[in-house]
Every structure is written in structure tokens, then in C-alpha cells.
Specification:
The complex is a heterodimer of chains A (248) and B (252).
Chain A lengths: L6 E9 L5 E10 L4 E5 L6 H8 L7 E6 L2 E2 L4 H10 E4 L3 H4 L5 H11 L4 H14 L15 H13 L5 E5 L7 H13 L3 E6 L2 H7 L2 E6 L2 E7 H5 L2 H6 L13
Parallel strand pairs in A: 3-8, 3-9, 6-7, 7-8
Antiparallel strand pairs in A: 1-2, 1-4, 4-5, 9-10
Helix pairs in contact in A: 4-5, 4-6, 5-6
Chain B lengths: L15 H4 L2 H17 L5 H17 L4 H7 L4 H13 L4 E4 L2 E4 H27 L2 H10 L4 H30 L7 H29 L27 H11 L3
Antiparallel strand pairs in B: 1-2
Helix pairs in contact in B: 2-6, 2-7, 3-6, 5-6, 7-8, 8-9
Classes of the chains: A alpha/beta (248), B mainly alpha (252).
Chain lengths: 248, 252
């Protein structure tokens, strides 16, 4: 029996209540342990797609399956889907709302029903994975932005997700924090989907990239191959930073 | 995270009501409200006529009845008061379905219900057919005091900022397994809102700092409005410098 895909998105369509069509039949499959970058210009539908992965938005058409489990409106299924899909949002301040780092990291597993020593072990494990164990009792708003982003990663790692989805993980990070986060992400034994405009970061972390534009996947190839196709990048309003060139 | 594509109250349509200048709609809405309020409560035929007019307006603006009904729920506390009045008011009693009801209370309840409902529906139709920005422009064109339009502009801005923040935090919480019924949700809400308010008050101050230089006197500068002039050099100074500068100039 073949192992189910970490993520299997088929023909997903979505229109906002005002009629704006954000997704027009998205197909995307990600195998277990893969690291994939989701690239695309502003307004391409990247965030809308991400919100379909854990059932925050319900597709107007098509299906989303995570580790073989199809997203639907059933409460039990949704709870399991949200455990399997760990979304790290762009602004860590949206994700950190409890008085201490430890409580924030415990929030997800506590919602899954974990208590006592098991919960403590989960928190320790997640904080250790992002190198933030010593900040467990600090208030999130006293941390630097890079530290807050690492804690935000820990808040979803503590739920032991099947797939980690990061929305613009490198935004607003200084070079050192960016490198530290890259090292952490590379060390995590999870499937990774990284939504980003930061093409060098995609190249650094993801072997494969897909480009989403106008609600459709328009390219799916090894990251290096995509980034050397300057015409393709230009067509979809993607650009490498000044002075940066990728060779095959 | 994207902001989505839905406005809270405005319905994006192309209808004669949407195209009407905002100042005309605001003036008409205020006048209609005044007329409704001063209508004697015994003039039932007049209220029926107003209801027909509101229905026609909603049809012209293509505002669905269900949309209006859902948002009219804001009126529920007043409806409860209106329903209670015939039972609790004093004065002459009438018998209806075996119930002893106050005549004054019946009229009073109807008065609250009819006038409140018409006011809410008119406001909703105005909101559905006019963007918030156009409302400010309309107020400005009606020579509303600038301090009012300025406060309204910032209030709308802050509401949008706070609403966006609350929405993103809610999504982040749901993504980590919170359901409305779960204790986690209740436990997280007060500090979340406290944190959000603190964070956003500083964010809002940031907006104030960024917006202030756009117009020395703080008015919104919509195209064609009386305050739509380019700022002078002093307009680009940071606020404390300008405050000192204005103090040194004295009142104008």
C-alpha cells in the first residue's frame, strides 16, 4: 500500500462573497517530507489556498486531503485536519496571545486534550526544536521579532503536524534571524509548504517550487529551474533581488 | 495574510442609488429620519407609506431583504422593549386575545418599533450603497465641521485595523484547534483582546503619525473636497514640531 500524500489538492475553486474569484481549479500534490515553495505575486490566491488547507475556508469546488484525510465540515475531521496542518502566519503577533511563551506553545496541544506531563513534554520538545527553551517563561512581546517567529513555529510544532505551512517566513527578519530560522526549518522532520516572495529563501530551503497566479498553478518544477527562467518569473511578477543570479 | 475581499456593510453594485452623490444620500437619509421621527405615532398609514418607500429604495439599490433582515438584528434590544411596553405601561387598558394591554403602551411600542426599524433600514441602505470613504467625502461636501469628519475618518480607520487584527487572531486560534465552544477559546479571548488593543493603539498612533502630515489641519483631502489642497512645507514636519510651531503662532 502506498503512503498517502502529505497534501493532495485537487481542482480547488473559491470565490469570495463579493464575487471575486480567488482560486480557479488548483491542483497540488506534496509527498511526505517534501519542502515546497509556493510563489506568486500579490493577489495570486496564495493565502486563500492556505486557508483551504485546514478548513478555515471551504472550497466552492474540488477537494483537499491531508495525509489521506479529506477536509470536510465534520467537527472531528476538522480538529484532526487542524492538528495535521500547522500554519505559521506572517505576523507572529497574530499567533502569540497568551502571557508567556510556554502557555502559547501549550495552547494547541491543550486544545487537543493533552494535560499534565504529556503537555509539558510537548512544549519542551517544540521549544527545543526552535532553540527557545530558555525563553519559556518570558512574555512573547518582550522577545525580538525573530524570536517571536521561532516561537510561532513552536506553537504549531507542539501539535506534531503532518505539514508545516509558513506564510512569508523570512519577512521582517534581519540576516542573522533569517539564517537561524532557515537552519531550524531545515532540521525539522516535517513536510513543508512555504508561501513566499523571497526567491533566494525558496532556493535555499525548497527543492521544488510552484507558482500560483490568478488562482491557478502555472508552474511546478525544481526551484533552481524555475528561478533561472527569467521570462516565466517576469510573466508572473516575480523578481530576484538586485545583483542576484541563479545558475543551473 | 490577505484581507479578504468582503466589506462589512457596503455591497459592491452598479445601481442608480450607488451612483448618487454621497452628500445627496446623506442629506436624504437624515431628512427622511427626521420626518419619520416627527410623524405622530397614531399615523399608521404614514408608516406604511414609509415602509413602501424603503422597500422601493432597497429594490433600486439591489439590497437583498435577507441581507437587511440579518443586519437589522442590531435592533433586537429595542424590539424587546417595544414588546414589553404594552404590558408594563400604565393608562387605559384594552383587551386583545385575552390579554390586558395598555393603549399607551401599544402606541409607544409601535412607535419605537416602527421608527427604530425604519431608521435602521435607511441607515443600512445608505451603508450598502455608499463606501465609508464616500460617506466622509459626502459629510465634507455638506460642510460638516472638519473635527467631525476627522474623528470619523480615524474612527473608521481604527475600526478597520482592529477588525483586521481580530480576524487574523481568530483564524490563528482556530488553526490551533480552538472551537467556539472550547475553553481554550474563552481563556484566550481577554488577554488576546487586551494585547490586541495595546498593540493596535500603538499601531494606530503610527497611522496617526503617518497621516497627520497629509493635511496640516487634519481634514481628509478627498478629490474635489474643500480641504483637498496640497500640504504646505510645515505639513510634513513631525507632529510635536508642528504643535510647537502652531503654539508659537498663536490661535488662528
Amino acid at each position: 500500500m502506498t503512503e498517502p500524500l502529505s497534501l493532495d489538492v485537487r481542482g480547488v475553486e473559491y470565490a469570495y462573497p463579493d464575487g471575486h474569484v480567488a482560486l480557479r481549479g488548483v491542483d497540488l500534490s506534496i509527498g511526505r517530507g517534501e519542502r515546497v515553495a509556493l510563489l506568486g505575486p500579490n493577489g495570486a490566491g496564495k493565502t486563500t489556498l492556505v486557508l483551504h488547507l485546514n478548513g478555515i475556508l471551504t472550497a466552492g469546488g474540488g477537494t483537499v486531503a491531508v495525509g489521506g484525510l479529506t477536509v470536510d465540515r465534520d467537527r472531528g475531521t476538522l480538529a484532526e485536519i487542524r492538528r495535521r496542518v500547522g500554519i505559521v502566519f506572517q505576523d507572529p503577533d497574530d499567533q502569540l496571545f497568551l502571557p508567556t511563551v510556554g502557555e502559547d506553545v501549550a495552547f494547541g496541544p491543550a486544545n487537543l486534550g493533552l494535560r499534565g506531563a504529556e503537555l509539558t513534554a510537548r512544549v519542551d520538545e517544540a521549544l527545543a526544536a526552535v532553540g527557545m527553551s530558555e525563553h519559556r517563561d518570558r512574555a512573547p512581546h518582550h522577545l525580538s521579532f525573530g524570536q517571536r517567529r521561532r516561537v510561532a513555529v513552536a506553537t504549531v510544532l507542539s501539535m506534531r503536524p503532518e505539514i508545516l505551512v509558513l506564510d512569508e517566513p523570512s519577512s521582517n527578519l534581519d540576516p542573522a534571524a533569517r539564517r537561524e530560522l532557515a537552519e531550524i526549518l531545515r532540521s525539522l522532520p516535517v513536510t513543508l509548504l512555504m508561501v513566499t516572495h523571497d526567491l533566494p529563501y525558496a532556493l535555499e530551503l525548497c527543492d521544488r517550487s510552484v507558482i500560483l497566479d490568478e488562482g491557478r498553478i502555472v508552474a511546478d518544477a525544481p526551484t533552481r529551474e524555475l528561478l533561472t527562467d527569467s521570462e516565466l518569473l517576469a510573466r508572473h511578477r516575480l523578481e530576484l533581488p538586485y545583483g542576484f543570479a541563479v545558475t543551473r | 495574510m490577505g484581507a479578504g475581499h468582503a466589506h462589512v456593510l457596503h455591497l459592491d453594485r452598479d445601481t442608480p442609488l450607488h451612483r448618487l452623490p454621497p452628500e445627496v444620500k446623506i442629506a436624504a437619509m437624515v431628512s427622511a429620519t427626521v420626518v419619520v421621527v416627527i410623524t405622530p405615532r397614531e399615523a399608521l398609514w404614514a408608516f406604511a407609506g414609509y415602509a413602501v418607500l424603503v422597500a422601493i429604495l432597497a429594490a433600486i439599490g439591489r439590497v437583498p431583504p435577507g441581507w437587511l433582515a440579518k443586519r437589522s438584528l442590531v435592533e433586537v434590544p429595542f424590539v424587546l422593549l417595544a414588546v414589553a411596553l404594552p404590558f408594563i405601561a400604565a393608562g387605559e387598558k384594552v383587551t386583545f386575545l385575552g390579554l390586558e394591554l395598555s393603549r399607551d403602551g401599544l402606541y409607544g411600542g409601535f412607535n419605537i418599533l416602527a421608527k427604530g426599524t425604519l431608521g435602521v433600514l435607511l441607515s443600512l441602505i445608505l451603508a450598502a450603497t455608499t463606501t465609508t470613504r464616500d460617506l466622509i467625502v459626502g459629510l465634507d461636501r455638506l460642510r460638516c465641521p472638519q473635527i467631525i469628519t476627522q474623528i470619523a475618518t480615524f474612527m473608521l480607520r481604527y475600526l478597520a485595523v482592529l477588525g483586521g487584527e481580530a480576524r487574523r487572531m481568530r483564524i490563528a486560534r482556530i488553526s490551533r484547534g480552538t472551537t467556539r465552544a472550547s475553553c481554550g477559546s474563552c481563556a484566550a479571548s481577554p488577554p488576546e483582546w487586551a494585547r490586541s488593543s495595546c498593540a493596535r493603539s500603538s499601531g494606530a498612533s503610527g497611522s496617526t503619525w503617518r497621516w497627520w502630515p497629509a493635511d496640516t489641519r487634519g481634514g481628509c483631502p478627498p478629490p474635489g473636497s474643500r480641504s483637498g489642497r496640497p500640504p504646505g512645507a510645515s505639513g510634513w514636519l513631525p507632529l510635536p514640531c508642528r504643535w510647537r510651531q502652531q503654539r508659537s503662532r498663536g490661535p488662528r
